[in-house]
Amino acid sequence: MFDNKFPCLDVTELIAVRINKNTFTESMNRQKMETKCWKCFGVLQDEKVRFQEKQYHPRCYHCDICKKSLQNQICHEEGGKLYDKGCFNLLQQDKCSRCKTLIKSNGQTYRGKSYHEECFTCQSCRASLAGCRFHEDDGKFFHEGQCYESFNAYICNQCRQQINGNDIEFMMFQGKYFHNKCFACEECHQSLAGEKFKIMIGRRYCNRCR
């Protein structure tokens, strides 16, 4: 069950030796890094900078974003990278869910997502949604009322205009929507809504005309 590297030790002593061996290895690795830069892993000479028990070449001790020297500056470390105060604060700010850039001020939050105020706008009229009632549809925002109704309105296949709330008389034929007045005979132009009609060479005609 156990190896025979330590035949004179009982189980308790064997476990203790193994733990001490790992601790010793970790200690040796740290001692090796004390002679090397934690950023470039090059050998350290006489000049070096120490930060949080780690040492760097002076040329390596800089912000990973703006590349400015961190000597005599407030330094932050995150994920093994170094940042000056300004760059670190930018990293902590939210990114806009629409344009994907950092939000420095005047942000809006909706359902856990952040937006620039100028990005949090109606998809239809482009005006700001701040302080307004609105609807979300497939990730797009619309002011409540006309903007949202226009977005959801059917389009007449004949005149290509919206079929909105004021146009209550409309119909569907072969999966396409029409105003009643637009679904008409090609010859006399009378509405065919609710009437029998014929289709000849792709054109609609009432029974009186054909």
UniProtKB/TrEMBL annotation:
Question: What Pfam families does UniProt report for this protein, alphabetically?
Answer: LIM
Keyword presence, Zinc: yes
An example of a Gene Ontology cellular component annotation for this protein is: Z disc
An example molecular function term from Gene Ontology annotations: transcription coregulator activity
PROSITE patterns assigned to the protein according to its UniProt record, in alphabetical order:
LIM_DOMAIN_1 (PS00478), LIM_DOMAIN_2 (PS50023)
Q: Which InterPro entries match?
A: Znf_LIM
Q: Residue limits of the LIM zinc-binding domain?
A: 94-153, 154-210
Keywords carried by this UniProt record: LIM domain, Metal-binding, Repeat, Zinc
Q: What is this protein called?
A: LIM zinc-binding domain-containing protein
Taxonomy of origin reads:
Eukaryota, Metazoa, Cnidaria, Hydrozoa, Hydroidolina
